Amino acid sequence: MSAVRILSTVALAPVLVAQAVRVRRSTPRLPGAAGPARGFVPGSGVPIRLAVVGESTVDGVGAGNHEEALTGQLARVLADGGRPVAWQAVGRTGANARVVRDELVPLVQPADVVVVALGVNDTIELHSAARYRRDLLEVVVSLRRRLGAIPIVLAGVPPMGSFPVLPRPLRSVLARRSGALDAAAAELAVLPAVEYAPMSPDLLEAAAFADDRFHPGPTGYRRWAEHLGAVTARVLGVTDWAVRG
Questions:
Q1: What is the spatial distance between Cα 124 and Cα 119, in angstroms, rounded to a whole number?
Q2: Quick count: other Cβ atoms within 10 Å of Cβ 198?
Q3: For residue range 2-43, what is the model confidence (pLDDT) as tens digits?
Q4: By C-alpha distance, which of 156, 154, 224 is closest to 193?
Q5: Does residue 239 carry a pLDDT above 60?
């Protein structure tokens, strides 16, 4: 961050804190998705074992159940290729990368591919890009130690400048921070069998959000799942996969 931006952020600190408190108090607190955090989408052949691990989006906040949240919708997208998908969602609202490494990775069951969805809480906590890159790398290493040399997809950090609940200048500050953390995540794609899947702001139109205007709703999760599905299918080598409308 440049010296000018640092000074600007410091000068705005009282405003940012006041806005953050106001947003926290006025934003509806939605629960995580109801129902089982594991499921099966039928198909033909050997099932793809899918694990998704991360923060509140993996916990399914904004969706009624996990089948219409990120993991369930991603499983259905992958099953469009014909093969069955056995899925598991291992998420916790409020988790940052270190919490995922220490507390959630040990809960992940054997899988053929893991999708990691993180970054919003690290952004809100104003973690540096260097810390996030290091913590995310440790998540990857921990997953590999537990599951073996399976492919891992790193979902891009959502661009928080597109979150409608955030007022300015708080939105601008978090937009810069989420962008920096997203760039740090992208750097890890140089690792063997690690893919990075950026999130386009086009996926975050107002209609894609839940009632809190912070988390995705079922429509937003579907759009995100379709985007992640293309990357996940590629790393799995599923050549006959396609999204069917």
A1: 9
A2: 16
A3: 333 433 344 456 677 777 777 777 788 999 999 999 999 999
A4: 154
A5: no
Q: Where are the domains of the chain?
A: 3-26+47-236
Contact 203, 227 (CB under 8 A): yes
The one-letter amino acid code at 84 reads P
Q: How many CB atoms lie within 10 A of CB 104?
A: 20
Q: What CATH number labels 3-26+47-236?
A: 3.40.50.1110
Measured between alpha carbons, how far is 245 from 220 in angstroms, rounded to an integer? 16
Instruction: Check residue 12 and give its pLDDT.
Output: 55
Instruction: Tokens 């997203």: give the residue.
Output: 182
DSSP H or E segment with residue 57: helix 56-59
227-to-54, 89, 107, 117 alpha-carbon distances in Å? 17, 18, 26, 13
Q: What is the pTM of this model?
A: 0.91
At residue 244, the pLDDT reads 36
Q: With contact defined as beta carbons under 8 Å apart, do 95 and 136 qualify?
A: no
DSSP string computed for 191-239: STTEEEEPPPGGGG-GGGB-TTSSSB-HHHHHHHHHHHHHHHHHHHT-T
